[in-house]
């Protein structure tokens, strides 16, 4: 499969737990996050709950899930509109360069269009050069700087 080949992108189903967990584990490995079973169970429960804001897509190559995207809708008061936030995008190392990540981004753009969202936004690590090549080709880097504020102590 070449970069121009189209992966099949679909929403996650309850039957995808094992494939999703393998991809999510790879994503967490990439960012050096521990494999806490409670986190896996919590995120899976969110993804299986139609009332929860978090949704997931899988990209398949030859019928095998090779990439995932977790995303959610959020309000943009500055625009008086909604947008989609891409929390996580991961392609298994053996499927990089196949177009799976690009296919996920294109599907997210379609969902944004269909749901009247004004954009799809995400962040990535500055040194994530492989992903940034795709992101730079498919999207516009913003000038915004990201901050994290920890909760106040009790």
From TrEMBL:
Keyword set includes Protein biosynthesis: no
The alphabetized UniProt keywords are: Acyltransferase, Transferase
What are the residue boundaries of the N-acetyltransferase domain, all occurrences included?
Answer: 7-154
Check the record and name the SUPFAM superfamilies matching this protein.
Answer: Acyl-CoA N-acyltransferases (Nat)
User: Which superkingdom does the taxonomy of this entry point to?
Assistant: Bacteria
Q: Which InterPro entries match?
A: Acyl_CoA_acyltransferase (IPR016181), Diverse_Substrate_AcTransf (IPR051016), GNAT_dom (IPR000182)
**A Pfam family it matches:** Acetyltransf_1
PANTHER family in UniProt: ACETYLTRANSFERASE (PTHR10545:SF42), DIAMINE N-ACETYLTRANSFERASE (PTHR10545)
State what protein this is by name.
Answer: GNAT family N-acetyltransferase
Q: Which organism is it from?
A: Leucobacter iarius
The lineage, from the top, is: Bacteria, Bacillati, Actinomycetota, Actinomycetes, Micrococcales
């Amino acid at each position: 499969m070449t970069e121009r080949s189209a992966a099949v992108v679909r929403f996650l189903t309850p039957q995808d737990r094992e494939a999703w967990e393998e991809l999510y584990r790879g994503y967490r490995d990439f960012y050096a996050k521990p494999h806490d079973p409670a986190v896996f169970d919590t995120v899976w429960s969110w993804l299986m709950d139609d009332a929860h804001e978090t949704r997931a897509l899988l990209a398949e190559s030859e019928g095998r899930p090779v990439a995932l995207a977790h995303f959610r809708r959020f309000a943009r008061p500055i625009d008086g509109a909604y947008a989609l936030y891409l929390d996580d995008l991961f392609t298994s190392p053996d499927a990089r360069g196949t177009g799976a990540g690009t296919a996920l981004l294109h599907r997210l753009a379609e969902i944004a269009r269909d749901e009247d969202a004004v954009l799809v936004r995400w962040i990535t690590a500055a040194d994530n050069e492989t992903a940034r090549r795709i992101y730079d080709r498919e999207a516009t880097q913003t000038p915004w700087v990201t901050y994290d504020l920890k909760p106040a102590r009790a």
